[in-house]
């Protein structure tokens, strides 16, 4: 039994699992073909309390903790529901508003995010800048009681469905400091690019966003001017731990699927599991998965206690994403030719897992962060 969870977490898991099995799993293939998940699914999730579980009760949330967040992350990973952008919305966007938003902003946006009425995104990445956020070019100039935003963002998760963008900008194009401004999708001058075609995460509505003289009231600024970079980096430890949590759950689920497959699949008159090579490979995968689970749960416990550091979050992402890539590759190999067929979950999960070593900061950036603490 994993000691990091309480009874209320286990009850939440049961509810999340039922919803995912009934409302998400039957439609995954359809959504991956369409490249986007209908907004009606978000509203259904909101109705049963599965979105933004850490939002305080006074703003419509359940007032939960990172344990509830982890449950939802793991249950989506268990079925490889990579089309669903709930995690970005609930665990990345809303925490910025909770942490840095004014009382007016919280009451204006959070209840509708909890209900699934509006979908949030974090608009940081830009063409050509990679992980170097300080070199971004999106600008916001002050004009009376407004900011006027210009620029372009790319690789934006939930971009196609986006209703509210927490947008990283610069007040001075030549400076390094960032300012976060919330931009609603219905503002004049804002537009979305076409959905980006990717090798994985095919059901995830990833797109570019364009800001052409978008006028936004000054009260849409999140927090203080020129404090955006510190806000972003403060939240990154948890965001990177999310990727480690997802990796551990994915490995465990695919390991179970592979065990079932090799015990049924026969080659040369015996099951694939009967071969010593298969047993040894699976034994290695099980041992590594168990080690990762212990570390990831320790990271989750630190997050729940407010003790998660930047370097530990980076370790969680680095180890989780790298191990996920290696182990899923081994598991796919044990499926033989069928592992290359898209109808099998292992093939889709293998492709989807590749981006984990890139987004949220590349593995190379994680090593840089860890090295600073040496």
Automatic annotation (TrEMBL):
Its cofactor is FAD. The keyword Cytoplasm does not apply. It holds the Pfam family Acyl-CoA_dh_N. Residues 226-374 form the Acyl-CoA dehydrogenase/oxidase C-terminal domain. SUPFAM superfamilies: Acyl-CoA dehydrogenase C-terminal domain-like, Acyl-CoA dehydrogenase NM domain-like. The keyword S-adenosyl-L-methionine does not apply. Residues 7-117 form the Acyl-CoA dehydrogenase/oxidase N-terminal domain. Keywords: FAD, Flavoprotein. Belongs to the acyl-CoA dehydrogenase family. This is Acyl-CoA dehydrogenase family protein.
